[in-house]
Amino acid sequence: MRALLVVNPAATTTSARTRDVLIHALKSDLKLEVVTTEYRGHARDVGRAAAESGDAHLVVALGGDGTVNEVVNGLLHNGPDPDALPRLAVVPGGSTNVFARALGLPNDPVEATGALLDALRTGSERTVGLGLASGTPGTADEGAPDRWFTFCAGLGFDAGVVGRVEQQRERGKKSTHALYMRQLMRQLMSEPNRRHGAITLARPGEEPVGDLVATIVCNTAPWTYLGNKPVYAAPRASFDTALDVLGLARLGLGAATRYGTQLLTSSPERGPHGKHAVSLHDQTAFTLESQAPLPFQVDGDHLGLRTSVAFTGVRRALRVIV
Question: What is the pLDDT of residues 120-179, one digit of tens each?
C-alpha cells in the first residue's frame, strides 16, 4: 500500500528518535513517503496534493490536533468523497490529541503506531462525519475561507482562551494543561460580555437563541481532555451524527463556577446544564452571529475575530483507519 506520512517536527510529545522509530515501523508494512512540515499550512498543502494526485492510498498524520486538522483540510479541499479520497490515519504527537483519542486510539505514539499497523492488516476503518465552518453570505465574513474541523469549534469565550494560549506558546511557553487553566482564568476576568452575551444562534425554521457568551460546537465526545480525564461539553455528540452545540448565556463568577464544575464532573451521560445553558443535538446547519467581532477557533486553532460563522455538519465525510 502506498502511504504518505506527514510529520510535524515540533510535535509536543515526540522526539526525533521516537519519530525515526515510528517511521521505520511503518516502512516495514507500507510503501512510505515521508514529508516533514516546514511552515504553518504545509500539512494542508501536502494533503491537498495527495488527494488531487491519487498517488497515495493512505495519508498518516504524525502530530497534534493542529496537524490533523491541516491534513484533513487538504484532503477535503475539493469536498468530501470518502470512496475516492485517500484514507486518513493518525499517530498522536500533540499535548491533547482529542481526535485520535475520540477514535479510541492509544495516546502513546508507539502504541498508536502498533494499533495502526494492526488495523491496516485487518482492514479496520470507519467513515466519520466532520464539521465545516464557512463565512456567512451577506456579512463582513462572507469571504472567509471554509475550514473543516474534526472535533470542535467555538466562537466567543473558549476561542478567546485558545487565542491567549497561542500567544503564550509564541513566546516560548510549553503547551500544558496548567497553561490552559491560567489563560482560562485570565479570559474570564477580562470577558466584557460575561453577564450579557453578544452571540445569537440561528437555525432554519427555528426561533433564534440570543445573548450567548460562549458557544462550543462539537463533532464528537469528549470535547477535550484534562490529562487523562475526558471532558464532555456535549455528551451525545458523535462522528456518526451532525453537530452538537453548547451555548452559555452567563459567565459571571457564580455561573462560571457552576458550569466549570459541571464540565469537570461531566460524563458520557451528563454535561453542563441549567437555566443559562442551551444544548442542541445533531444539527445539520446553523449560524452563529455576534454584535461585535469575537475570537473564533477550530480544533484548537485560533483563526482571529469573526462576527458571523455558518456551520454545516457533514455525515460520512472521510474514511479513517481505526
Answer: 999 999 999 999 999 998 888 988 999 999 999 999 988 999 898 888 878 888 777 788
Q: Where in the chain is CATH 3.40.50.10330?
A: 2-123
Query: pTM of whole model > 0.90?
Result: yes
- Pick the range with the lowest mean pLDDT from 82-86, 101-105, 130-134, 178-182: 178-182
- Rounded distance between C-alpha atoms, residue 144 and residue 17, angstroms: 39
CATH architecture classification, 131-316: Sandwich (2.60)
CB atoms within 10 A of CB 269: 8
When pLDDT is averaged across residues 60-64 and rounded to a whole number, the result is: 97
CATH H-level, domain 2-123: superfamily: Probable inorganic polyphosphate/atp-NAD kinase; domain 1 (3.40.50.10330)
